[in-house]
Amino acid sequence: MSQNNEQQERLQKVIANAGVTSRRKAEAMIVAGQVAVNGTIVRELGTKVGPRDHVEVDGVPLSKPRLATYLFYKPRGVISAVSDDKGRKVISDYFVDKQERLYPIGRLDYDASGLILVTNDGELANLLMHPKFQVDKTYLAKVEGIPTAAALKQLRQGVVIKGKQTAPAKAWLQSSDRTKQTALVGLTIHEGMNHQVKLMLQKVGYPVMKLRREQYGFLDLTGVQPGEARKLNTKEVHELYQLAEHK
């Protein structure tokens, strides 16, 4: 089996990603002796394989999935997942016509909308989600009240959330409504703490009413409506790899 640990994945995951069956059923097939790697039957669930390994399931060579990454405009009220035990709408519901087994990269709050990437490229997903390779994400939040210059300065310097200091952020007042006492605040962060934007704005005294992710790295929502997706081209995928690896 391949010795390139960086590109190795568990055998059951590779089988599932190829669309043969679910990961759980793939595990049962491995234990039952239905899977061979490089001509040898493998029954160990901890087995890892790489791109050069030849995998067969019931004597049939495993076809490698074509990698695809999509930019998706997630509407509010959609779970950033492939399934939900409460029966709520999930991102995968918007990709039922695709042959690839796609998964969202990271997450976006249920009641938030905006840009999220969906892919079957495990290497790209791991890079973009790894704490070491933090990518800038820009949000537009509608808040109660009109943030002061001092509050925006606090956001730029970082605030303490759950005992942890956030990294300095870019923060600006996009617009305000004096009559309704609401405002639109722009915020760019590169961390991935759950509910971070909401918590940061709450911390400085301006609760979030609506939240949308406008940008992910160099990508934005231009030409894409809520519930729509577009496939990234080769150049864009290459730039995402470069963005993560050069952080």
Automatic annotation (TrEMBL):
Keywords: Isomerase, RNA-binding. This is Pseudouridine synthase. Residues 9-72 form the RNA-binding S4 domain. Gene3D superfamilies: Alpha-L RNA-binding motif, Pseudouridine synthase I, catalytic domain, N-terminal subdomain, RNA-binding S4 domain. CDD domains: PseudoU_synth_RsuA_like, S4. PANTHER family: PSEUDOURIDINE SYNTHASE FAMILY PROTEIN-RELATED, RNA-BINDING S4 DOMAIN-CONTAINING PROTEIN. InterPro entries: PsdUridine_s_RsuA/RluB/E/F_cat, PsdUridine_synth_cat_dom_sf, PsdUridine_synth_RsuA/RluA, PsdUridine_synth_RsuA/RluB/E/F, PsdUridine_synth_RsuA/RluB_CS, RsuA_PseudoU_synthase, S4_RNA-bd, S4_RNA-bd_sf. Belongs to the pseudouridine synthase RsuA family. GO terms for molecular function: isomerase activity. Coiled coil: none annotated. It comes from the Bacteria. The keyword rRNA processing does not apply. Its EC number is 5.4.99.-. It comes from Lapidilactobacillus achengensis.
